[in-house]
Write a structure and sequence with these properties.
Blueprint (H helix, E strand, L loop, with lengths): L1 H15 L15 H10 L5 H14 L8 H10 L3 H9 L12 H13 L8 H6 L4 H8 L6 H11 L9 H11 L6 H15 L3 H12 L5
Helix pairs in contact: 1-11, 2-3, 2-6, 2-9, 4-5, 4-6, 5-6, 6-8, 11-12
């Protein structure tokens, strides 16, 4: 792992340059609603499509920047349910990866499960406090089509700086630069965390910088 870390740090210096120029990670520190939308709609999707979804939500919800999870659930219910909300409000009927379920259906279910916990998670602040709570992670990850990556990105969006979302683009970059045929999620997370510590940045900032390098568009 030490050799891999040294190789990765040299690659990052060549490819990404000075960390001070990377920009801030995506964050919605006061809106669990925006965290949930960004997390679910970012799975195997382009940043442009996600930005459109967020813009459409903001257009109908002037309080979007402070909306709780239940606020988003109620907005879906008031529109006729998550399916109607996806079609008529967000105008995006893409499905969660590996399923036939609309992303809004998964979001509605996940936020409802979080709100129903013994220690409810209804706001971004409560999510940050529950970041290491197994009950909270299980409530979100057990939703068909979400899972571990969606949970990690939900936390990152809420402002949990120690998280990473080693998705396809990030894993592809590490595999290519390290000459590794396969890296597990655990190996990727460990490498990103150690590299971030060496560079003096949050792991989520490094994650985003690599993603941007691999893609012409940002999250």
């Amino acid at each position: 792992m030490t050799d891999d870390l040294d190789v990765l740090l040299r690659a990052l210096a060549d490819d990404l340059g000075d960390p001070t120029g990377w920009g801030a990670p995506v964050e919605f520190g006061d809106s669990l609603a925006l965290c949930a939308l960004n997390s679910a709609y970012s799975l195997r999707a382009t940043s442009v499509s996600v930005q459109r979804v967020l813009a459409r939500y903001r257009a109908v919800r002037p309080s979007a920047e402070t909306d709780s999870g239940p606020d988003l659930v109620k907005a879906m219910d008031d529109a006729g349910g998550p399916e109607a909300f996806a079609r008529d409000v967000l105008r995006n009927t893409t499905v969660l990866p590996g399923t036939s379920r609309l992303r809004t259906v998964g979001i509605h279910e996940g936020l409802s499960r979080l709100a129903a916990l013994a220690s409810p998670v209804r706001t971004a602040e409560q999510l940050r406090a529950a970041a290491k709570d197994p009950a909270a992670s299980q409530a979100w990850q057990s939703v068909l089509g979400l899972g571990q990556l969606a949970w990690s990105y939900l936390l990152m969006n809420a402002g949990v700086g120690t998280e990473t979302k080693p998705d396809v683009m990030v894993t592809r970059y590490l595999s290519r630069r390290l000459g590794a045929a396969h890296l597990s999620r655990e190996q990727t997370h460990e490498l990103l965390t150690k590299a971030a510590a060496s560079l003096g940045v949050e792991p989520r900032a490094l994650d985003r910088a690599i993603w941007q390098y691999e893609s012409p568009s940002s999250r």
